[in-house]
Every structure is written in structure tokens, then in C-alpha cells.
Design a protein that fits this description.
Layout: E1 2-5, E2 8-14, H1 18-35, E3 40-44, E4 47-52, H2 63-72
Antiparallel strand pairs: 1-2, 2-4, 3-4
Helix pairs in contact: 1-2
């Protein structure tokens, strides 16, 4: 589900409804806090888009990004 675009990893997913999408985002928030690595989050009703890159590494992809992506693929 993750795709590499312009030095970022992008994840897009459509859920059945807003509550399901929000539940997913709550789990993502916990992972982000645990890892200290926070994505850009977009949510419109049942559609979610996550974008992650390592800002303190000149906005390039690092192992932190790939670890976050792996953790979110549940």
C-alpha cells in the first residue's frame, strides 16, 4: 500500500466509513508517538492519506520512514 513519491512514502486507503478511518488513524497516532516519527495525515470522510519523510535528514527517506511504514501495515 505504500508508494515512494518525491523522497516520501505515501499510503492511501479507503475505509467503509468515517468511524473506521478514524479508528485506523488512532492506531497510527499511537505508532507515531512510540516511534517519535510523525506523518502528515489527510482524512476526508472514509479516505486516509499518510505521507512520511525524515525532515531532519533533508527530507529524504531513511530507515525511520521504512520502519514507520512497516509498523502501519497491520
Amino acid at each position: 500500500m505504500w508508494k515512494e513519491e518525491n523522497n516520501t512514502l505515501v499510503y492511501k486507503k479507503q475505509f467503509n466509513d468515517f468511524n473506521e478511518a478514524w479508528g485506523f488513524l488512532n492506531r497510527v497516532a499511537l505508532i507515531a508517538e512510540q516511534q517519535g516519527h510523525h506523518p502528515t495525515i489527510e482524512n476526508t470522510y472514509n479516505k486516509v492519506k499518510l505521507t512520511v519523510t525524515t525532515h531532519d535528514a533533508d527530507n529524504t527517506l531513511t530507515d525511520k520512514d521504512h520502519a514507520f511504514a512497516k509498523a502501519v501495515d497491520f
